[in-house]
Specification:
heterodimer, A: alpha/beta, Rossmann fold, 2 domains, five-stranded parallel beta sheet, two-stranded antiparallel sheet, 5 helices, 42% helix, B: 11 helices, binds iron/sulfur cluster
């Protein structure tokens, strides 16, 4: 069992919503539900987070925010869409500025329906996400190795023989960077 | 004991510190989180949660802002280990304090190196905290020097028959006060906190993730064990009885800090700076002067 399933840290973002689900997420932290029992911590920093909990739907203005948070999270990471707004747009679906659910912008791993989603359902969704997290964690070393290999290959391609020659010559001239 | 015997004992305690401190520190952190949760009417995480957290961080994708950052954080860990090693080897207390400061400075530099505004504010607040606690730490060192037959050597302080706290009650109170800052507890968890706080409070660690954050966490475990060792110095007089009392007081002090953490809101940095200097002056400096004049006028200590 990877350790990530024992210590999933969460970052929470609330998109276009009525704030109902937002409040329910915070309710999970209260003594009544106490998600810290599972090692879950609500961080405010995508770089520390493992699970991205999104409530509310995507509108034109928060696309970049959602994407940025998602991209800043180090892998393995899981996205949990909480509430029907995050799942499909919900009651806001027909609005002129709404794109729809979170999956129109970033890949979603777990959907938690409900309006508002109950804290029990949210915790259940996060626990479901742990399974996905464990799976992604298993794939991570291979992925990283593949990327490193691809990077090395790309670097080799960049170094065609002539460029290497000019680089070496210019290095002799005492200028390490200029020539290549 | 022969000189050789002392060396072997010192080497053993250094090795014990390097190997065991992370476990003790992590366990203390787990107890802290558990007790905090109970104080808030929650059940709380498993006792080993801090270890799960660090092991998890180690298995995350490595992401750093720049290469320097990892180097600085690694230096922070190394200097923290050296601090504790020098301490448990019984070397000079002054040397230990300055090594500790070096470790903290590396942490600040690591935060500054990222150019992220949150990290920078965190680094500034960390520097302010250092300014707040340094005077009291030095006064504590001088106080222990005065009562241990004029020696900064930690083995002399532990070995001297005088029980520090008897002569240095003010300095001990002052040291407990700044221990709140050092352990990063409310009301002084300005630059970084171990609980699920956010934004500026996590400022220092904003740009650290994965392995870097794990290393930082481990260096805090080392630091906490060393700090409790410092508390122990006030009680040690070379007898087993006082050693037991010392360890008990360390645990009580830790519990007290957890309690203070839970009953206080976070204050502004101005308050941290002013209050800790006032405490250092009123309790620390006064106590130090009393002990000093007592010793030059020939009564009291040595
Ligand atoms: S799903 Fe319902 S409760 Fe949740 S944010 Fe949307 S409208 Fe509000």
């Amino acid at each position: 069992m990877p350790y990530i399933t024992k210590s999933p840290w969460i970052i929470h973002y609330d998109g276009s919503s009525c704030n109902g689900c937002d409040i329910e997420v915070l309710a999970c932290l209260t003594p009544m539900y106490d998600v810290e029992r599972f090692g879950i911590i609500n961080t405010g920093n995508p770089k520390h987070a493992d699970i991205f909990l999104v409530t509310g739907s995507v509108n034109e203005q928060n696309i970049s925010v959602i994407k940025q948070i998602y991209e800043q999270m180090p892998r393995p990471k899981v996205v949990v869409a909480v509430g029907i707004c995050a799942t499909s747009g919900g009651v806001f679906r027909e609005c002129y500025n709404i794109m729809g659910g979170i999956d129109t912008v970033i890949p979603v791993d777990v959907y938690v329906p409900g309006c508002a989603a109950r804290p029990e359902a949210i915790i259940d969704g996060v626990v479901k996400g742990l399974g996905v997290l464990a799976e992604k964690r298993g794939r991570l070393p291979a992925e990283l190795a593949e990327e490193a290999a691809a990077r090395r290959a790309a670097e080799r391609e960049d170094d065609d023989p002539e460029a290497v020659m000019t680089f070496e010559v210019s290095e002799d001239a005492g200028d390490g960077k200029g020539g290549a | 004991m022969t000189a050789n015997g002392i060396n072997v004992a010192a080497a053993l305690s250094v090795v014990a510190y390097i190997v065991l401190a992370p476990f003790v520190g992590g366990l203390l952190a787990g107890i802290d989180r558990r007790i905090s949760a109970r104080m808030q009417g929650r059940f709380g995480p498993p006792l080993l949660q801090p270890f799960y957290d660090v092991l998890k961080l180690l298995e995350k994708e490595p992401v750093t802002v720049n290469r320097g950052q990892d180097f600085y954080v690694a230096c922070c860990l190394i200097f923290m280990m050296v601090t504790g090693a020098l301490f448990f080897a019984g070397m000079s207390l002054l040397l230990v304090i300055f090594t500790l400061t070096t470790a903290s400075v590396f942490l600040v530099v690591a935060a500054y190196s990222s150019n992220s505004p949150y990290a920078q504010v965190g680094a500034e607040r960390e520097l302010l905290q250092m300014m707040a606690y340094e005077p009291m730490v030095l006064i504590a060192a001088v106080g222990l020097y005065l009562v241990s037959g004029r020696s900064f050597g930690i083995s002399d302080i532990i070995g001297s028959p005088a029980v520090g706290v008897v002569y240095l009650p003010g300095i001990f109170i002052g040291f407990l006060f700044i221990l709140t800052i050092k352990l990063r507890k409310s009301p002084f968890d300005l630059s970084m906190s171990h609980h699920a706080h956010q934004e500026l409070v996590k400022g220092l660690t904003t740009e650290f993730s994965g392995k870097t954050l794990a290393i930082l966490e481990i260096s805090h475990w080392y630091e906490n064990v060393f700090l409790l060792g410092f508390v122990f110095l006030f009680f040690a007089n070379g007898t087993p009885l006082m050693a037991v009392v010392g360890v008990a007081v360390c645990l009580i002090a830790y519990f007290l800090e957890v309690f203070i953490d839970n009953v206080n809101a976070r204050m502004k940095w101005q308050f941290a700076l002013n209050s800790s200097w006032i405490v250092a002056l009123v309790f620390g400096a006064t106590n130090m002067m009393v002990v000093y004049f007592a010793s030059v006028s020939g009564w009291g200590v040595q």
